[in-house]
Amino acid sequence: MTAPTGNDAFVEFERVQKSYDGETLVVKDLNLTMPKGEFLTMLGPSGSGKTTCLMMLAGFETATHGDIRLGGISINNIPPHKRGIGMVFQNYALFPHMTIAENLSFPLEVRKMGKSEREEKVRRVLDMVEMGAFGGRRPAQLSGGQQQRIALARALVFEPELVLMDEPLGALDKQLREKMQFEITHLAHRLGITVVYVTHDQTEALTMSDRVAVFNDGVIQQLAPPDVLYEEPSNSFVAQFIGENNTLEGEIKEIKNGIAVVQLDDGELIDCKPVNVSKPGERTRVSIRPERVEYNKDRLRAGVHTLHAEVLEFIYMGDIFRTRLRVAGNDEFIIKTRNAPDQTRLQPGQQIEIGWLPEDCRALDA
Amino acid sequence: MADTTQNGPVLAADGTPLKRSLSRALRMQKTRALMLVAPLLLFVLITFLLPIADMLFRSVENNIVSDTLPKTVVALREWDPASGEAPGEEVYAALAADLQVAEENKTHTRVGTRLNYENPGISSLFRKAGRRVSKWDIETDGPFKEQFLDMDKDWGKVEIWQTIQTYSPTMTNGYFLNSVDLMKGADGVEVRPENERIYITLFIRTFIMSLVITCACIVLGYPVAWLLANLPTRSANMLMILVLLPFWTSLLVRTSAWKVMLQQQGVINETLVWLGLVADDARLVMINNQFGTIVAMTHILLPFMILPMYSVMQTINPSYLRAAKSLGATNWTAFWRVYFPNSVPGIGAGSILVFILAIGYYITPELVGGTKGVFISNRIAFHISTSLNWGLAAALGTILLAVVLLLYWTYDKIVGIDNVKLG
């Protein structure tokens, strides 16, 4: 994904702030630019401001300060019904007193479209979500997954260029959720629509999006494609929030050749990649993914520092082994190894040496 | 698995049929449930269902004539009122015998009162006759026809005897005919003279005014219910207290307050005169008429409309409105096409409640209704407590009950009673 330039910016947030009570800011100085056709996910814990951002874009909340632009035009003063933005709600918000076909026809009716054209479009969109036979039913007669499809169809039927989705898969069970994740992404790419998707489920964010904006405390912590987000978190919040993560705390001893040597609180030394630390003496929180930890000495690069570890627990999970270690006084240090034929199974009580490639271990803010 | 391949009934583990086993297991639960509702069931039976049954029965019951004047009733069977002549001696003799027994039991005045409903004047005839007949010797003092006519020449009138004959059966539809301004004339059912017709007018007025009150409650209550359902909890609770406030004051006090407000020397008129909007000699008449009744009753019944509407509106997901707007609907379209249809069950429930309460309302129309603003229930109350014509009161009540049930049935057919929600 190339970074969007000012010219092809489709959705823009410029210095947007939002406060409900006039005392605290729910959204602090938000800047975000999206090109046309992008699938962007706003990810964050509840209360992080992601839904507020979505509601401001939809027009149900007004920004306290700043400018929101759609296709280059400021939409701050345009009421929601004139924005032409499709929206899928958390609980689907299908109108219970209308049939499925009437629900889908509603946005076309309020646009004063002719009857035959409406019927044609409704039929086409029903076919698109593979619900062609359900036009005459009421929402209550459909299962959760079917309602979800109809909600999606209703947001798409009037052919908006931008579709907002507010945790649309939250109420579905795991299997259906995974299936719908793929369906939504495929549909979005096929139709070429721009999607802003809000969720607190990081797996959903990683599998579906072109880019993910991680929100915390009203600020975007990192805005990056999923792989960058996972492998190169830019601060300790993102590292903690995305995927499983081991942290160790310590102080920078020296930085040279792009490798930082960190002295952990119990005195041991490790090698890391300095991310947002700059000089020796600084406190740092070191982040390392469980699957990047190596305990087989042969596979470690010569000369790197290793740490002593004691195996506390071995958990067999089928495709992987999950082993809990005590490392530098941290009892919650996890390593993950693939269940391969030559893989050793560690026993509780076993003493091992662990290490990693310095570039997999990131020295972040304390 | 084995059970499905067998052809007989499914058996429980001990070999008894599963159905019997299940019902035995459930019997205990059912008995307990029945015991829990038994006190209420008895209470409702004694204080509600039995009185209604009694009322329905009273509206057609007419034992009093045949019980008090058994011989006369038998003797009158032969008589044909179309002959235009008073009945013969044997009827008068029977009446004398009956009255003598009745006088001893003091029941002759009651039958007089009963017949007086149908033919005013009979009551005094019976009272006078009772006193006189008690002194006669039935065996020796005959013939009686002349003596009756001497006592009062009305005893020779065909209409008197016709009334007695018409009301001698133990069941009568007379009360019902009376309730709809009809009567039993010489040639069967006929319409009452114009100056005696009141009930049809009253019924119509009751329905129209109840309808107006219901509509006023909908119009006034809907925005309040909407506000209640959409305000933050704290302000909503405050507003809810204001809505319920009328329940905390006595009905009589509230109605009297309206008297103070609406009368010609009342608060509203004084203010209007002071403001110069109304001339002092042309003060508005707002009480002791239909306007007063409608205003006071709308105020009193408003909470019954607001509460069901509120509880239904609370269940309407606010995201429906947002969804409608995001789909391109203006505020009005979103309300009218999405919110309003979902709130109809609340309006239905509130309307049924208010309408049925209004139709049977009594105290408020009595106090502020004057003559033009009274309801059919005031007439029923009059017959129960003043004229003591319980049969007619029962017939009016039965008609009211039937009409309410009919409306309920129609509502079910048109809107569907499943669409009525109280929350």
UniProtKB/TrEMBL annotation, chain A:
Secretion signal span: none
Pfam families, per the entry: ABC_tran, TOBE_2
Gene3D superfamilies in the cross-refs: 2.40.50.100, P-loop containing nucleotide triphosphate hydrolases
Catalytic activity: ATP + H2O + polyamine-[polyamine-binding protein]Side 1 = ADP + phosphate + polyamineSide 2 + [polyamine-binding protein]Side 1
EC number: 7.6.2.11
PROSITE patterns noted in UniProt: ABC_TRANSPORTER_1, ABC_TRANSPORTER_2
Top-level taxonomic group: Bacteria
Record-stated family: Belongs to the ABC transporter superfamily. Spermidine/putrescine importer (TC 3.A.1.11.1) family.
Name of this protein: Spermidine/putrescine import ATP-binding protein PotA
Taxon lineage: Bacteria, Pseudomonadati, Pseudomonadota, Alphaproteobacteria, Rhodobacterales
Gene: potA
TrEMBL record, chain B:
Domain spans labelled ABC transmembrane type-1: 203-411
Gene3D superfamilies given in the database record: MetI-like
Primary site of residence: membrane
Annotated TM spans: 33-53, 202-229, 235-253, 291-310, 344-363, 388-411
InterPro entries: MetI-like (IPR000515), MetI-like_sf (IPR035906)
Family matches, as CDD domains: TM_PBP2
Membrane topology reported for the UniProt record: Multi-pass membrane protein
Pfam families: BPD_transp_1
Keywords tagged on the record: Cell membrane, Membrane, Transmembrane, Transmembrane helix, Transport
Subcellular location(s) of the protein: Cell membrane
Ranges in a coiled coil: none
PROSITE patterns, per the entry: ABC_TM1
Homology family: Belongs to the binding-protein-dependent transport system permease family. CysTW subfamily.
UniProt name for this protein: ABC transporter permease
Organism per entry: Ruegeria sediminis
UniProt lineage: Bacteria, Pseudomonadati, Pseudomonadota, Alphaproteobacteria, Rhodobacterales
